[in-house]
Amino acid sequence: ADADGTSAPQLRHEITTVGVVGTGTMASGIVEVFAKAGYDVTFVGRGEDKIAGVVAAITKSLDKAVARGKLDEDGRSDVLVRLTGSTEREALAGADIIVEAIAEDLDVKLALFADLDRIAKPGAILATTTSSLSINACAAATSRPQDVIGMHFFNPAAIMKLVEVVTADDTSAEVDETVRALCLATGKHPVSCGDRAGFIVNALLFPYLNDAIRLHEAGGASLDEIDEALKGTKLPMGPFQLLDVVGNDVSLAIQQSLVETFGHAGWQPAPTLERLVAEGKLGRKTGEGFHTY
Ligand code: 3HC
């Protein structure tokens, strides 16, 4: 039960404006999630072209939703008018919660959190969608660790319901409860977990994906045979299809952090994963990964 003994989490902080930092696949999906749920969203990117890219990606997704009968034309335009893109982080000063989805690199994240500490209004929630870095480390880069939390969305964020809500040592109970309530308000399914590499899903999913690569490397079966066989077990995608959706660079970073944390020698990234990343074959986003698009 939460603070007042109720079992459903409540919004302990008023949330009207959401800030998002980043313009990649995850950031774009997260902007879409909040705008669809009726929040005004300000998102910050490193250039006008990147900002236009987010609007284009969301427009494409909304068009798809309309075509599927999940959204009407009015709903589509309501979502688009809620979006404000900016190249200045200062634009986030009015946000009630800021979710960052920038590069999966600790130094880059720490510099961002120090910046958000300077910019965000008092009491704003500072969330990260990191999939493998420490929430405690992000919190320690600010003077307000009680307001820092992990909100780990899954790819594609606009569709996947799960969000792992990751509390760090100092995250306040109100912030944790508010973020879980916010997930429910956006149609997501929050699951709480502690701050350890891979949280729950990636700690279990990525060793399987890595083993699929090793099976292929060992001559066990072709990419398509493995994908087809696993889809036959009712998984929605085979391992190589999913690796290409997630991105091989992201997958490599997650696998490396699992090895560092758990010290399991068998979890070393498969050589093919390292080679594809070195060759820039990152998956769907570059047009080629394990498969070609
Ligand atoms: N807007 C709204 N809804 C949409 C949409 C859009 N743009 N596009 C698709 N949908 C809806 C569809 O209407 C459908 O919903 P319905 O069943 O209620 O009608 C649903 O999404 C599925 O769409 P499709 O039927 O077109 O496609 P699939 O059935 O092939 O599903 C998928 C696509 C959901 C991506 C599915 O293949 C899947 O679940 N794949 C696995 C994804 C996954 O596991 N992601 C996690 C990766 S790990 C991760 O992200 C962690 C990170 O740290 C790396």
TrEMBL record:
Q: Which residues form the 3-hydroxyacyl-CoA dehydrogenase C-terminal domain?
A: 198-293
Q: Which residues form the 3-hydroxyacyl-CoA dehydrogenase NAD binding domain?
A: 17-195
Q: Does the keyword Oxidoreductase apply?
A: yes
Keywords attached to this entry: Oxidoreductase
Its pathway is: Lipid metabolism; butanoate metabolism
For biological process, the GO terms are:
fatty acid beta-oxidation
Question: What GO MF annotations does this protein's record show?
Answer: 3-hydroxybutyryl-CoA dehydrogenase activity; NAD+ binding
Query: What family classification does the UniProt entry report for this protein?
Result: Belongs to the 3-hydroxyacyl-CoA dehydrogenase family.
Q: What is this protein called?
A: 3-hydroxyacyl-CoA dehydrogenase
- Tell me the lineage of the source organism: Bacteria, Bacillati, Actinomycetota, Actinomycetes, Propionibacteriales
Q: Which residues of the full protein are shown?
A: 105 to 397 of 397
